[in-house]
Amino acid sequence: MLPLRRQLALSCLGMLLIGMPARAQQSAASANAQAGEAYRINPGDELEVYVWGEERLQRGVRVLPDGTIAFPLVGQLMAQGKLPSELEAAISSALASQYRGEVPQVTVSVTSPAGMQFSVLGRVNSPGSFATGRYINILEALSMAGGGTEFADLGSVTIIRKNGSQLQVLRANVAPLLRKGVRDEDLARANIVRVEAGDTIIVP
What we know:
By secondary structure, this protein is an alpha+beta fold. It has helices spanning 4-17, 22-35, 84-95, 138-144, 184-189, and strands at residues 46-51, 58-62, 68-71, 75-78, 106-112, 117-122, 128-131, 157-163, 166-172, 200-203. The protein contains 5 helices and 10 strands, in the order ααββββαβββαββαβ. The strands form 3 sheets. Strands 7-6-10-8-9 form a 5-stranded mixed sheet, covered by helices on one side. A hairpin with a 5-residue loop joins strand 6 (117-122) and strand 7. The chain starts with a helix and ends with a strand. Mean pLDDT is 81; it is low at 1-35.
């Protein structure tokens, strides 16, 4: 059974989409499909690493704030931004010197995607921090925050994103998708951004 917050979020998103013109629904669905791509590892995630036939190399690890993990016989490995399959390959390569023959199969699974967190501030009904186990788009993020308040400017949503040591400011315009009688030119002005881990979303 889904957690209550997740149920409410999905319900709110459904309410946002109800009444949209068909073209607007297609636009939102397309953005959601893009958001559903394979999950990449983030700092704070908990991983389960298993090397077949090696009990000493089976353990849970947490991705450190710098994006690395520590693993026996390997040391520090960069995990941030990698798919689980890519981290499996990196661990296998690092273990190669420890085996005369083929390295046993390595399996990496994300047991708790706690690193996929973002915050929504400003004129929304339930501001705060949220965590998801998948990528979502700006419409879903606003839905999780209860949607915009009466005077929210959904045409000028700001996303503050950290890229390394730099801050990037993005703009999102979802207002055209929430109006009745949406025209093609209105849809062209809409900007449905995918939310990344650590994003701060501000609704003026």
